[in-house]
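Sample 1 of the test manifest.
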Amino acid sequence: MRLRLVVNGEVREVDDVWEGESLLYVLRERLELPGSKNACEQGECGSCSVYVDGSLVCSCLVLAGQAEGREVVTVEGISDGDDLHPVQRAFVDAGAVQCGFCTPGFVVATHDLLRRNPDPDEADIREALAGNLCRCTGYEKILDAVRLAARGATG
Amino acid sequence: MEFIQPLNLAEALEAKDAHPEAVPIRGGTDVMVGLNFARSRPAAVLDLSRVEELEEWGLEDGLLRVGAGVSYTRIIEEIGGRLPGLARASRTVGSPQIRNRGTVGGNLGTASPAGDGLPPLYASDAEVEVVSTRGSRRIPVADFISGPKRNALAPQELISAFYVAEAGGPQQYSKIGTRNAMVIAVCAFALALHPESGRVGTCVGSAGPTPLRAEEAERFMRGVLEEGGLWESRGAIPEAALRRFGELVAGAARPIDDVRGTAEYRRHSVGVLARRALGWAWDEYRGVRGAA
Ligand SMILES: Cc1cc2nc3c(=O)[nH]c(=O)nc-3n(C[C@H](O)[C@H](O)[C@H](O)COP(=O)(O)OP(=O)(O)OC[C@H]3O[C@@H](n4cnc5c(N)ncnc54)[C@H](O)[C@@H]3O)c2cc1C
Ligand code: FES
Ligand code: FES
């Protein structure tokens, strides 16, 4: 089937989409946007997190056709070209990136948190990132990065 | 595989009538896991995510009517004050990503004994509304959930909404799992105090083939509160009665051993959850001056 959707502000059209594939597959394999990662395909790890119509979701759990006409923003759309978004900058500065596989998901989830709540407390941060797994960092540096980004965001 | 995308409820019902085998999908948080792992290869999928009628909620004849497509996030944010028990349960579901997508309609569709959206509905006598091109019917939730992962939907029917009274008193939901997020309940317990009728609503989750009302515990506590005049005096519930309540709830569980816990652990812990939940809810009731 044919799919038309807006990805990172651009109208994209994809042909020969299989009816049973996920939005994650469409993004990675058909639209050459490999930022969103595929680690579990069952909603457990959050590495495929994107916005669909402004709502943070696991793109592996969105059926391709459900994204028809929707606005999707991926981690690629969060940065401004090659300029890192302050959330991404904070992850680099805090040393929150080891293998990096989980990072895009954490960046999008953190972006969503700070958009809703620019001054989150510890519990808010842990709650907002509960759906994202990291196998390398032990999370402490990731929490540092979120706090750093929040300080930037609140000035 | 056929992908069917109706734009309103009438179209959805016609599509379900023409393709009774089509698998509905709304949040996809259960359906997609099956598709991604090739556990299910349905001939057709019926996408309900554009059907706006399913996203609505409001008051109807004194009851709340909540569309099957209202996400957990919206239940927490928009209806949490009116349905505190369901909101508490919704907060325990998965992660923000899952709650933004997942729905109580999908929880009813999956009909898992561990579904967190279900026990609060049992504890408040909710009814499930199902529709087809031939009309609609309302089914008490305990009849709608007919067995483990089974429900009373006919092939041509869709779940349109559930009906439940706005909370008339404190409500609780407690869940046991290995972490505070992203867990399937080892066991769970929902409680709703109904000061207007003198009833205590309960439901045990994830400790039986379906969610289970603890009817004996309900009758027992109703008697304790009535005989002691506690609804009026707002006096404390005797410790022994709280303990007995917990035991009766534990007795209502019909748990099994599985990877998440043993039957014995489930039975024990659901009794503890029940005793504590009642204690918290009753404290709240006692503190609320002038509650109906
Ligand atoms: C990572 C992860 C964590 C989770 N954590 C929890 C948890 O903590 N607690 C919990 O209870 N669940 C949990 N779930 C399961 C799932 O999120 C819930 O069951 C959710 O309520 C399903 O809603 P949905 O809209 O996504 O359903 P879908 O996947 O769209 O559908 C689920 C079922 O319901 C049917 N269906 C959906 N809508 C209708 C309708 N209107 N009419 C008829 N049939 C319909 C579908 O055909 C399907 O059989 C989790 C899932 C994941 C992936
Ligand atoms: S790949 Fe989607 S949550 Fe893990
Ligand atoms: S940095 Fe490797 S998984 Fe998080």
